[in-house]
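Recall from the previous lesson that a structure prediction takes nothing but the amino acid sequence as input. Here we apply that procedure to Multidrug ABC transporter ATP-binding and permease protein from Rhizobium grahamii CCGE 502. The sequence below is the only information supplied.
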Amino acid sequence: MEKSLARYIWSNTRLQQLWILGVVAVSMIPYFLSFDLPKQIVNGPIQGSGFEGQGATQTFMRIAYTLPIVGEVEFFKGIQLDRLQMLMGLSLVFLALVVLNGLFKFYINTYKGRLGERMLRRIRFELIDRVLRFPPSHFKRVKSAEIATMIKDEVEPMGGFTGDAFVSPALLGGQALTALAFIIVQNFWLGMIAAAIVGVQAVVIPRMRKRLLELGRQRQLTARELSGRVGEIVDGIGTIHGNDTSNFERADIATRLGLIFSIRYDLYQWKFLVKFLNNFLAQVTPFLFYAIGGYLALQGRLDIGQLVAVISAYKDLPGPLKELIDWDQMRQDVQVKYQQVYEQFNVEPLIEAGIQDMSSEPIGALTAPLVVTNLSVSDDSGARLVDHVSVEIKPNETVAVVGPNSSGAEAFAEALGRLVWPDSGRVTIGGKDLLDLPEAVTGRRMSYASADTYFFHGTLLDNLLYALKHAPLRQPDYDDKAALEAKWHAEEAIKAGNPTMDINSDWVDYQAAGATGPDDILTAIRPVLDAVLLSQDILDLALRSNVDTKVHVALADHIVDLRETLRQRMQETEHGNIIVPFDFDAYNPQATVGENLLFGSMKRPLMNNRRLAAHPYFQTLFRETGLSNDLWAMGLEIAENAVELFHDLPPDHPFFQQLTFMTADDIPTYQALLQKLQSRRFDDATPEERSAIIRLSFAYIEPRHRFGLLTEELMDKIVSARKQFHENIPDDLAAVIERYDPQGFISSASLMDNVLFGRIAYQQADASDSIRSVMGDLFESLGLFNDVLSIGLEFDVGSGGKRLTMVQRQKLNLARALLKRSDYLIFNRPLSALDQRVQDAITKNIVEGLHKEGEKPAIIWVLSNAKLAEIFDRILLFDRGTLAEAGNFPELSEQNGMFKELLS
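The prediction returns the following tokens.
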């Protein structure tokens, strides 16, 4: 990595810098002419110099040069103009020079900006490229938030400086020297005054700004450390809450913020002191020009035109000079930042770039044995985890690795998976060191999974197929406009030193998973999900999800058949009447009062309970049907019963799990509200009080809560109000409320609600599990299981996969490793969060039944249960970093060794 930022910029933008420097040099010509022109205007047509006689004229725009040997050559003899015409002509030339200088500035600044943005893109990509090539051990010593902050924020000024690195000193220095030279030409002494002030600014100001640079460096370091600390708080929030250390963290953050405040306050003081001094020196010079220049003009030693030209030229001198001083400060500041980036990212040894070269071609199977020779692995403290272990693992062989905790078995598996690098010895395949093999080989023909999991933000399917995204295999179908845009992006990527790989291409290697394309990938995924016992979890996610009927057409078309078949299947079980279907003409006692009243599903987030309750049509319906008073009285009684029954119970009491309309925290609130509302009618209450009481009645289910509040008369009134609601429903509500349709699919309801088209009876024990089991069999028999599975696979796993449980994450991690159908599978206690019985079942599924005969890979599995080693071909027993015993299950179980102790 280049240590000097200036050299880095020059080596990557040499040709562009030379071009823009040439443009800067040309721009100095009209810049100089714009200084001399005001003098000509004042002395010539305004004061009349050269126009003394009546009708006098002067030559305008004569272009002639004296060339060596040839002599004077006249290119244009010019035009004769009178005094007024000359004034207009020179003024128009001045205007043209202003426009030309502006166009030069526009082009130069635009070119600099584009150059800087390309360089910023290059720097960021190269830094991320280096992160991808860091040795595994380095990630134990860095904080991800600090690395991200450096790449995102700290290199930002480097992009802006790239365009200014060579152009700004040439442009600003050229402008300042041009203005200073012009002043000296007009009057030597005024020129010397300007030069002296410039010298003071050029020497004193940069020296004072050294303190600013040091403070800026301290500010950058403290801000980066704060970012890293905040990242630690987010990642370790469970540890903080579990140990009551939130106030310790607050104290730590307050101390860091105090340090940042003191640095920034000191920075502001120095910054404005330097600014004050710079502005003072800039204003002293005009004072000297007016005083001394005016005196010389009064003495006749300086004409008015020269004085005006000098003052006009000096007005353009402080700007470039100040910007030049600012450029020098930015140069030093950016160099300091770059030095910090260099120190952070200049890690040795990096993974060789060639190891990560992309390969679109299929990678042949690994048919050679995995040979471990004299392998030794240590942790960061130097403690030996694996000590001179040698072993050979053959293709298609299943090997169980067992041993007590800290035996070295885990470190051995990590070395095979390239997560740690050996201190000595090596791991080879076909005579080639594992660390020298391209990742295109090890990343496709070898799989590693452990208890540590990480998933990127996206769907379950995205993360499951992540193991197959090695190279862009199929280009997207762009239209002409999109193709031109993609071509432009590719050209810009090349100019910025970025790869031209298109992220919008299809990267999934379907053939590696045993599929032909996206249409049959679920056929390949299904056995893997079944093997790790994840299919039911994904089915449950699908049942709780809404369905896009435009995508899952077959499922939507079969929904009515599914409802009928489900009820028939349930009739054949012991739970015959477990589902109470929705009927527009009848009240469903297993549904809430609100569900019975609405008889439909709201399209969220366009509509919710609060908006519906506030709608004028809904409020009018309540008043006309008298339900407002009925539900008010019902809500008051629910509140009284709940407060009376639960006010003495602790907040974590299991009874609160059955109290769906109220939480433990709501009890004191309703207790106070009931005292306030004693003997008050619906009309006397405030809108907030009405809402708080009536919402209790909306969530009431008689068979579940059993307060005896639902009479036949009230249920009939609710059904009547329901009919009136849907009969005259306004268009705005009809657009956001989807009525239950026994012959159609309800897109705003979940899949399970669509299939049930009713509610499960609360009196039946284990009713929900029974229905899910029947639904799974039903989807399978109708050939819809994969369609339903794809709905579950659309579930967003959240940041780091945290929307999944730990058990689900470990199952998914194992499934992702299996989907590649690698030749060597290394599993390092991958299911530690699962019950031992479930671990054993999944292990047997994978070792014995997942792959067909002849496609069985080599499996190296670090087991938590030594008894399960019986199903493996060979056993490696580790103890204190050494290979203590090796052999098959019958041999080791009969010996009086450590393995026999583990079995007991």
